[in-house]
Amino acid sequence: MEDSWRDELLRSNRHPSLPFELQLGDGPRVVVDHWLRILPGKRYVGRAQMAGQTVVVKLFVGVRAFVKAEREAEGIHRLQQAELHTPALLEQGCEGGAAWVVTAYIGESRTLFDAADLSVDANFSPSLSDSPDDQGLQYAQSVVRTIAEMHLKGLVQTDIHPGNFLIDNSSNQSDCWVIDPADVVSETSKQGRAENIALFLAQLPEIWWPHLLRTYSEITDSEANCDKVRALAWQAQARRAADLAHKSVRDCTLFKVRHDWRRFVALWREDEQSLGPLLDDLDGWISRSKILKDGGSATVARVDYQGRELVIKRYNLKGWSHRLKRFWRPTRAWHSWMAGHRLRVIGINSPKPLAMVEHRWGPLRGRGYLVTEKAEGLDLLALDSANTSFEQVAAALGRMLELFRRHHISHGDLKGTNLLWSSELEVIDLDAIRWHNNQARWQRAYQKDCVRLQRNWQSDSAEHEYIAAVINSSS
């Protein structure tokens, strides 16, 4: 092995060069022309040219590189023995503290994540459909059929997610290929298989679950207890939501985090270049934009930035006493940033959080900023009853409160101006939201939310009756 390619990958962090040429031991020379997945210091996956054909090369570096490559090859053999689609193993080897696996490249294919236009942070979107003709749902059903076949053959993929299945559209039928086979292991228990399909469902829109459970049960002869799988999927969904929230404040594949003595910045990695100038001058952009709210505790501005409508919320510090109380605590921007991600994963619509900034003095925290997409619609108190069906609004509110109960959430300031309506309901102002571990404390906080919500309308109004009916039916 050339000493240089492993060292060059380690030095490159997240940005190895292209084209990237390397010699695989005594085997063929490979030229990577597109990086597909990068885990710095661990694994680099790229589309490449080798001996005149397009391939996928996985390069493992660092500790246990050989073990990881061996697991990859073993997973391929397991899937092939079970007669399941997986890209063929073309080359495997190791040398000098690095290892590699080369597989066939499935050209006319996309991951389920891309083919179905899924989002890592949004369980719910108004554009989703549960119609049997929906293309995304059909792709998901194709994958579920493959998962069911794996389970019948006694196999599960422990790191199961929509990015680990390819939809091949080169034939009349959409074939499904299993990729990243290192985590394909034997599993014979019903509980293990139920947890596996539940983990997969937790990463898909919940309106698809009935169709997908029906598809799975047809192939496995109704082995799955649908109620049990649904409950397991809700649990997995909650774990994923908490996991994404914690990832959002550390540097990883999805998020870019940088901090020094004076500032902490977190944002989606895909927005790193575009949002940089905005984050470097947040106060300036606020002063030049339309102010939506200018109170003592917070200033909110709508910003037109590079063709995007954004909202910047600055959490103000009222004075030295307020500053001293907040020094050691995460800012309200930090709390709202994490809460927004967490809500969207479990299916509660909230404006997408794009970036969060904290002013700091070493470990001491000062003013915080939250940047989100602009929410659509009007707050519930501004709705025109002549043009809006409040019955429809109340039904959406009932669905939101059901999720509050399922996940033991309280909002802390659930008033009509913090709920926006266009075609769906969005919740804003998340700095007081809480996930409760204590049942009694959650019930008290949730009841306060319900009381606060009903106070927005006169007790003899139609709106109050709709809201009261929703709350009473769920209690």
Can you describe this structure?
The structure is a single chain. By secondary structure, the chain is of the alpha+beta class. It folds into four domains: 3-104, Phosphorylase Kinase, domain 1, CATH 3.30.200.20; 109-243, Transferase(Phosphotransferase) domain 1 (Transferase(Phosphotransferase), domain 1, Orthogonal Bundle), CATH 1.10.510; 255-373, 2-Layer Sandwich (Phosphorylase Kinase, domain 1), CATH 3.30.200.20; 378-474, Transferase(Phosphotransferase) domain 1 (Transferase(Phosphotransferase), domain 1), CATH 1.10.510. It has 14 helices and 23 strands. The longest helix has 22 residues, at 226-247. The chain is globular, with a radius of gyration of 25 Å.
Concise description?
With 475 residues, the chain is α+β, with helices and mostly antiparallel strands. 37% of the residues lie in helices and 27% in strands.
SSE blueprint and pairings:
Elements: H1 3-12, E1 20-23, E2 29-39, E3 43-50, E4 53-61, H2 65-81, E5 89-95, E6 98-104, E7 109-111, H3 112-115, H4 135-152, E8 155-157, E9 165-168, E10 175-178, E11 184-186, H5 190-201, H6 209-219, H7 226-247, E12 255-259, E13 263-268, H8 272-279, H9 282-287, E14 290-294, E15 298-305, E16 308-315, H10 320-326, H11 332-345, E17 353-361, E18 364-373, E19 378-379, H12 390-406, E20 409-410, E21 419-421, E22 425-427, E23 434-435, H13 439-454, H14 462-474
Antiparallel strand pairs: 1-2, 2-3, 3-4, 4-6, 5-6, 7-9, 8-11, 9-10, 12-13, 13-17, 14-15, 15-16, 16-18, 17-18, 19-21, 20-23, 21-22
Helix pairs in contact: 4-6, 5-7, 7-11, 12-14
